[in-house]
Amino acid sequence: MNRRFDLIVVGSGAAAGNIASRCRTAGWSVAMIDKRPFGGTCALRGCDPKKVLVGAAAAVDAARALAGNGVDVGGLMLDWPALMRFKRTFTDPVPAARRAELARAGIEALDGTARFAGPRHVTVNDERIEATRAIAIAAGAMPMKLPIDGAEHVIISDQFLGLETLPASVAFIGGGYVSFEFAHVAARAGAKVTIVHQGTRPLEPFDADLVDRLVARTRELGIELQLGTEVRRVERAGTRLRVIGSVQSRDVAIEVDLVVHGAGRIPDLQDLDLDAAGVQYSRKGIAVNRFLQSVSNPAVYAAGDCADSGGPPLTPVAGYEGRIVAANLLEGNHTVTEYAAIPSVVFTIPPLARVGLDEEEARRDRLQFTVRHEDTAGWYASRRVGERHSAFKVLVENGTDRIIGAHMLAPHADETINLFSLAIRAGVSAPQLKQMLWAYPTQASETNYMI
């Protein structure tokens, strides 16, 4: 006999947690299934542990930036094994804590791989389970398969975050968030680092002018950027690895101790057998309508990185979409997604941040706007901490004075960008924001000069 639950949730991260907890609070019986330790990517193998490493690297960098200006950096270094032990104090308790939280709520946690066995049925560990009301898919994303020979020699970001020791040299394939963030950490831990990117411009979602400054900062650290380089294969070279690439039909070879996959992620759907449930999907994820309901199976909803919702693949967005799904399950389809003014950050040192439109997007939307763009390395907030690569770009619509986009490369840009996000979402105009009185001296207090 099938076991039955009102709701089956696949995944245990930010989106899954919101869906399960809200429906359980409303009295639904809920089962949550995950093939990996409970807690989700962000808490266990993504944002949270990454930021622990970035924090330590930033502390070392801050001291080195002020060397000779009142700070003695003799002997200063990152202790990688100790840093990994510190990181584990954040990640190791998560699965047990999450399972205990689910148990207290009365949500049944099932370990194993969920596979559809019909429109409302899944199997896990040879058990068939029925969802009498709905199935919510919040399975997240996974590294895409590298289309190169020797891909088996390449580790993924999960494994990098678990390294007990850091090799002397590391190459990152891809020029996105993962590669830049981990490269900045590894370089400050003493590794010789190379980023190999197929395109001529890395970090494509971010403002090109600010990316150029970050690239200069990155190279100043001693990180080699091989741009316009297509990786062909990775091969063994004795005890080391050799990355073979092509630049304008010319072969290049890079020998390193470790190669890390940072070339992008795709929705983690391959084990679900979505066809058995009539769930339409593509490489972008499960096809959903504006209520995050499957366009082909009304009993299925999807949220987070596995949903083709149009939202950016960010943890706050996954949590937000989880709340949307829960509301629509409990009250009927009435709440739709809205993705305006969502900030995103590359946690390099200094961080690169953006919210709203960039210049190309604003022109595409036929907006008339003014751009305020300035190098801020000589401004107080950057100069006092020794940061020589910082800048901003703010877009203000002509006639309305609406702030339509903000871009920053600076110390604490990851925090300050939230002020611009709030201004855009709340409709605070540039003149109104300029009248704000900020605590001084802070990074936020320089906002007045950016508009």
Question: Can you describe what's shown?
Answer:
The longest helix is centred in the N-terminal third of the chain and has 19 residues, at 47-65. The radius of gyration is 23 Å and the shape is globular. The strands form six sheets. Strands 1, 2, 3, 4, 5, 6 and 18 form a seven-stranded mixed beta sheet that branches. A five-stranded antiparallel beta sheet has the order 20-21-24-23-22, with helices on both faces. The protein has a four-stranded parallel beta sheet with strand order 10-9-8-14. It has helices at 14-25, 40-45, 47-65, 80-91, 94-105, 157-160, 177-188, 208-220, 315-331, 359-364, 380-383, 413-426, 430-434; strands spanning 3-10, 30-34, 108-111, 115-118, 121-124, 127-137, 141-143, 169-173, 192-196, 224-226, 230-237, 240-247, 250-256, 258-261, 265-267, 281-282, 285-287, 300-302, 307-308, 344-346, 352-356, 369-375, 391-397, 403-409. The model has no long low-confidence stretch (mean pLDDT 97). The chain has three domains: 3-47 and 86-143 and 266-331, FAD/NAD(P)-binding domain (3-Layer(bba) Sandwich); 151-263, FAD/NAD(P)-binding domain; 344-450, FAD/NAD-linked reductase, C-terminal dimerisation domain (Enolase-like, domain 1). The protein has 13 helices and 24 strands. By secondary structure, the chain is α/β, with parallel strands linked by helices. Helix content is 30%, strand content 27%.
